[in-house]
Each structure stands twice: as structure tokens, then as C-alpha cells.
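Assemble and predict.
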Amino acid sequence: MFREDCRVKTPEDQDIPKVSVEILGRTFQVPAGITAVDALWLTGHALERGVGCLGGVCGACTMLYTTPESMEFRVGLGCRTVVTDGMSFFPFPQRGRSRYRYDLSEVKDPAGELLDHYDRADKCRHCHGCTNVCPQKIQVEEAIELAAKGEFEKAGEMFLPCVMCGACFAECPEEMEPNHILLYARRSFALRLAHPPRELERMAQAINEGKFAQVMEEILALSDEDLAARCEEGRR
Amino acid sequence: MTTLRHIFDVNAARIVPTREGRKGVRFSPLSPEERERLLSSFHPDYKAGAYREIRVGPNKGDRTVSELADLLESDSPLDPGMGLPPDHTTDLLVIGGGGAGCTAALVAHRLGARAMIATKLRLGDSNTVMAEGGVQTAVGEDDSPVEHFKDAIRGGHYKNDRNLLRVLVEEGPEAMLWLCDQGVLFDREPDGRLRVKSGGGTSRSRLLACEDYTGLDIMRALRESVVHSGIPVLEYSPAVELLSDGEGRCTGAVLQPFGSSRPVVIRAKAVLLAAGGIGRLHFQGFPTSNHFGATGDALVMAYRLGVGLVDIDTFQYHPTGVIYPGFLAGALVTEGMRSMGAQLLNSRGGRFIDEMETRDVVSAAIIRECHHGRGISTPSGKCGVWLDAPMIDVTNAPGTLAARFPNMVRQFTRVDVDISKQAILVYPTLHYQNGGIRIDASGESAIPNLFAAGEATGGIHGRNRLMGNSLLDVVVFGRRAGAAAARRSREIDHGRLSLDHAAQHRAALKDAGVAQPLVGPILVPTYARPRAV
């Protein structure tokens, strides 16, 4: 058995090339091949804000960055974006508070009620801003178009990888809150339009009717040994 | 720099030509005795040198990993004599904004209680959001909560609390219907039936999933529900100490918001600990799959208040944590891949374990291979085995992997690796706290008015949790504890606020000769290098 170095891997190896990055206005030399979050830690930036799951699904480390090739701001997840030479990056402002509220249980006609809940959902200017900034590469504008037409199943499917980073929210000139609109599409589809989860309903009912109660009592009363024997028998 | 592709290319001759022949071949399962032998020889739980005795408190004399023992023996950051004028008064304070915390708060709120969530990072920042493969519950025609119970108790080495496990499996289907009501969209087959997948250690397929974004879909829906319900949420406000009335009841908590020197005092009739797990404590130096905030805060605070912990010497190491490239280290490759045909291979290109064994057994087997020199080394000095994911497309139709695991495809495309063509390197990663705070079937601890739910609790999963039972746990017991706490708050008044228990713990540390206790909870791991001027 051996001990793993679980902390940020900071090879002092001279063979690892260094790259130059700019963080909040200051320039640092860091090893090539590390992520923006690792670069922040390596250069002494102790963060509570700006890190979350470190697994690419929560959006806490969303950041804006530019590279020498282009002054265009790009959006990436800091835990999954590898630094390159000349990259300049800084944390993205945290996800905005949505201006909209709805009670999902009260939604009866998901598509018909879209504008009741998100009154700017039909105002898309087709500027491609949302699609351009999405760090998950979702075709946001297309998904919004589908949602506006009532095609909630497809819109919800496209929306699945969304980490709610809020980049599209910040970018949209119509302030329509695309990520929340698509979340509404997916949730209301799940509740009202998807095939009902009959198998779960049947099982829950059978359990409530006590169908399995006797066998369960029997199992609960077994000794550890007898229970183990019971659990091993007939295993595939 | 050596890429993963290069390492694979060097080894490809041992892997690619054997794929057709390996298709559908089940590696011989181990007998119970063989499983025990493998575990005791290679599983990190059995490494005696990593463990020590706890010297104070309800679990005095029990053994746990040194890192956790240090924290259970840690001192409060607060002065027990400090004034405690309440900044907020509420019925139920939920500490933790992940799956269990949000579920409990929503249920309590719906039952008419005044609920409030305090969370260390943002609402939804949790391990829940990262869960990939699915949530387990009895659902098929040939399935029942009894079968689910048997699978789970076998996985838990028959040490699960049987009453708690019974609740988990019997209330599972209803809990999943509740999630559907929150807008979670589980995958369907083309004919509309729920798509059900298999997981390690189970006799039936009973995992419901949202491709490999299950936790994300659940957390997104729950978070939106919480925000729309108007439940107050204090973000970046970690709890650092519970409050008691001096007579053994919990009466609130003290928060220490990041960036503020002034603590925030919450007076509550009931407190519910849902602050998750311990991965970022990196026991035995393992990398972790866990989120940044998983530092065992719930255990530390509950322990100081006198709550006993169960099964605190066993932790789950998920077998397939990525080891290369470095920045993905610890990241999880979902068990779902193995259940769809992905196979584990050692440096000789040989199989060495049934991939659908329970996680502890598979982890021990991987550690064994590396120990015996049959692992693959990386340029950064790590060792691992191959996870041959392309077998998914060989075993099913081409394109299956891309369709079912878009999250994994995306993560690896970012580093120029096509996981439908090339195998990746994996090694066990610290993943889950099997044990924790002892609770009853209502989610209440031995301290009146202190409830707990989710990973912070113990007993349900015994000594090893099955895939998909944690997502189930957070919803089933989040609902139960939320409801019980709401009922309790109707029955009682607010109590006195004191830190007497912190003073008692401090005295106990002195008596036990704990020379230089840590100050805990640590709240965040220290990764940042000291700032260069």
C-alpha cells in the first residue's frame, strides 16, 4: 500500500514547462497542464467562494477568461479548464437571483402557462449570446426556441447537462433567464407530460397495502447467520 | 507531457484484441470467505496503522482513522462564555443545503413549520449534485422491498440497523414519487416505462437515473423548489457549534459566515444536521470524489453535544476514481459503466474481479493488483488499473456509451480522450461515510430536538453502502426527519441558549491529556499555498 499525495499536484520538476497566467490583474508562472482552480490555489488564492463540487457539475467555479489569440471573453468551469500560456481569468459573478417564481404543483398546462411564469420567454432576439457562453456547450438558443413553441420534451433533454452557472442569464439582452425557463420546461414536462411512473405507483400501493409485510417481518426476525444464508441463496 | 492516450497506446495490444473474447464473460464470483479475506488483506478499513482510539466523548475507546479522531477531539472555535443574543429565531434550522437538507426543509415547510437553511457554500453545493448513476428503489415486477432489503444488508455486511433499513426500502417508491412531483425526470424507455438499471451487489435491476446526471437533476429541482417556496437560506454561513439548554437538549446553532468576524446566532426549536460527508479530509492520503465542503462538520458538532456515532471506522472507497490526468484525480466514473459492460483489467490486460461485486470488494481487488505489481504506473507516480469502457459498445450496440453516459464523455472529451475508444486509468477514491450520527426511525438523535439526515447519519447502510442507496437515503430520511422536526416544533417552545457542552468538551479534552487539540470543524481543506508576496 502506498500513500497518495492527495493535495494539489505541484510538480517542482524542471521538465514540466511553465505557462504565464494572469489572475485578477497579477501575472504568475504556473506548471502547464493544471486547471484554473489549481492555478488559483498554487498562487496562494485561498477560496471559499469560487469552488464547489470540483467535479464539473455545480458551476461554482465558473470563470471568464481570455487568451492572447482573442480578446473575446469565454466562459469555462475553473475545475475543468486547463490553463494555457497568456490566459487571463477571473471568477464569474455568482448566479443571479431569479426574478420569477412558480408553484410547480399548481402548473396544469406547462406550455400554455409558459408566458405566465416567464413573461419574456418569447422575446428571443437570436443573438446567440446564450449559446456562445454556455460552458456545457448546450445549444441554449435552440432549446429556448423549442420551449417557446411548446416542445418541452426536447427542450428539457437538451437542458439536462445544465449546471445553472448563470452565464446565459447574465448574457441575455432580453433578461429572460434562459436557464430557469428551460428548468421550468423540464420540470413541468416531468410532472405533467411524461409517462406517469406507474411502476412506482403500483409498488408504493402494494407496500402500503401490506403485501410484503409478512415476509419482511420474517426476514427481520432472522439471526445474522440465517439472514446471510437467505441472502446468498439464489444469487445470480 | 505524456498523455493518457500515449499510455493506452503502449498497452493497447493487451487490451483491444481481447475485447470480443471478453464480451459477456462474467468473472467468477467470490465466496463469502474469499470476499472477507480480500477485504481484510487490502481494504483501507483494515489498515491498523491508520487508526487510533478516540480519547473523549460518547465513542471514547472506539477506533477511527486518525484524521477523524483528531477532529472529534477538536476544540470549539467559540468562547463558551460568549453572549448569545439570537440573530434569527425559527422553528427548524436545517444545517446543510444538499439533497437531505433541501428535502427536509421543503417537507417541514409544507407542514407549516418555519424552516430555515444555513449552508456553508451555496444552496445545492453538496455531494448530491455529483451523483451520476442513479437512485435505487424497488420497482420491477419481480422485485420488492424485501429483495432490496436483502441486497442492502448483504452489502452492509449484515451490520445495518434493520429498522432503519426497513424504512429506507419500504418508503423508497413513495420518496421517488415525491421527487417526480418536484420535477425530476427519470429516464424512460421508448415505450414510456421507467428505465431501470443494475448496480453493484444487487440481485435485481432497480436504479432510476437521468442518464449520468441523476444528482444534478435532483439537486436542480430541489433547489428551485426551495427558492420558490420562500424558505430563507443563509449561504456561505457554515455552522461551527450547536447550542444547548444546558440540560441535554439542542436549542439552535452558531454560524460563522465567511468573510465576517461576527458569529450569527440562530435560536431554533429543532435543528437538523444535513451537512454531508468527509471526503475532503483525505483519510489515509486518498484522493476524493467529494465536493469542497465535505469536511465532516456534522460529526464534529454533534459529537461535542454528546451524540454517539455508529460504524465510524468504515468508509467507502469508490473503486473507479480517475487517476490521470492529475486534475481529474478522484473524479468518479460511475458504477453504471460497469453494469453496462465496462471491465477492469490489470497491467497484463487480464480480468481480476467480478465488476459487479460490492464497492468495498472491487476496491480491495484493485489495491491488491497494484500491490502485487500488476498495476499501471503514470508519469506522476500513481498506480492504477484499466477501466475498459469501450466494452460498453462491444457488449451493447455502438453508440450506447455516448448515449447513456454523456457526462463522462464530456469530462473526457475536454482532455482529448474518447472513452468509447480507449480505456482509462482508475484507482479507489475516498467516496462515502458509511456510518455517522446515530438516529432513530424519525431521524432524531439521542439529543432531543437534534435531528439528522443523509450522509452524516449512520446505521442505515451498515458497513458498506450499495450504489443508489445514498440518493434514496437523503430523500427518505430527509422527508422523515423534516416531518418529525416539524411536528416537534409544534409541541415545544424555544429553549435557553448556551455553550455549556462546549465548555464540558474542553474540560474533557484537558482531562484526557489531549495536548494541542485542533480547532474544528475545519470547514474547508487547505489547498492554497501560502501567498507569495
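DSSP finds 17 helices and 19 strands in chain B.
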